[in-house]
Amino acid sequence: MTSTNTTTTSRTRETWTGRRQLGVRGPETSALGIGTWAIGGPWDFDGRPAGWGDVDDATSIRALHVAVDGGARLFDTADCYGAGHSERVLGRAIEQLPASVRDEILVATKFGNVTDEKTRSGGGKDVSPEYIRRACQASLRRLRTETIDVYQLHDGASSTTEAEAVIATLEGLVDDGLIRWYGTSVDAVEVIDAFARAPHSVTVQTQANVFGRTDAVLAAGQRGGLAVLARSPLAMGLLAGTYDLERRPAAGDVRLVAPWWDYFDEDMMPVWLDRLATVRGLLTTDGGSLVQGSLRYLWGLDDLLIPIPGVRTPAQAAENVGALALGPLPHDVVQEVDRLLADSPERR
Predict the structure, then answer these.
(1) CATH number for the 2-340 domain, one of 2.60.120.290, 3.20.20.100, 3.40.47.10, 3.10.150.10?
(2) Lower CB density within 10 Å: C or N end of the chain?
(3) Which DSSP string corresponds to 210-229?
(4) Residue-wise pLDDT tens digits, 259-315
(5) Are 173 and 136 in contact (CB under 8 A)?
(6) Could you tell me which residues are beta bridge partners of residue 76?
């Protein structure tokens, strides 16, 4: 595991550049990416809310521009976020940048979850070659680009055989010039290993934050030479420090209904808040906010990790990218956080 290697210079603040390699085959980019699920607006998937509430597109674009101004060069989205709306807003935001800056931006989007732009709803998975190609063309249109930098499997393949079938289609898209690289947001180890053997694979996306991660996924990324995009690096906002038992996400927010986390469930939120209180001082020990300390923790944990926190406002974007000037937390602080949170069920 790279997280036990204390000699790697990219995790020392003295040599910190704010840059990381996008896997052994990919380009260099910013050590912080920006997630765009939250700017997609309301939509439904499998019959339940899947958005983060109402959005203002002008505010979203300003937030993305603030992130760029602060050094972010990697943006993560998906064709299903807002049933395509997130991609459209991101495409508009990038189009407004100077050409010299646009050339530095990498966009990673995803496919596999079936949605309908007109009804802003979706359900089910499809990773057939025909569907992947249609989805790619639709994402290109919404993003206002001719080539997708990193095209990621969102869902729909869980075995080596299924992954290899998807990879064959992705290689065809590379040959056609429609995508440059690809990756997987399915973090089953057998899927990661299949992608790692593929010639244009550069990333695996998995949940990783102060509360936990899946070590087998980090090991698979290390073994396969893949960058690890850390989704939910702020525990869906709980690590921002602005939520408590009296202030939870509003009704209709995906964070209250999705089965993948329980940070805001009435019975579990007090437990997570207690865990946060245990390490809050460590995360802010040498300057920076709680948000920034949570991102810096991930940089100090593993050289592969590129956190991709979501943003909805310019203030959130500024706080996130402000962590780039601070660099990773000291290794002894990271170790102490891990010791204090060793009982977390998300440490697997």
Answers:
(1) 3.20.20.100
(2) C
(3) TTBB-HHHHHHHHHHT-EEE
(4) 889 999 999 999 999 999 999 999 998 889 999 999 999 999 999 999 999 999 999
(5) yes
(6) 35, 108
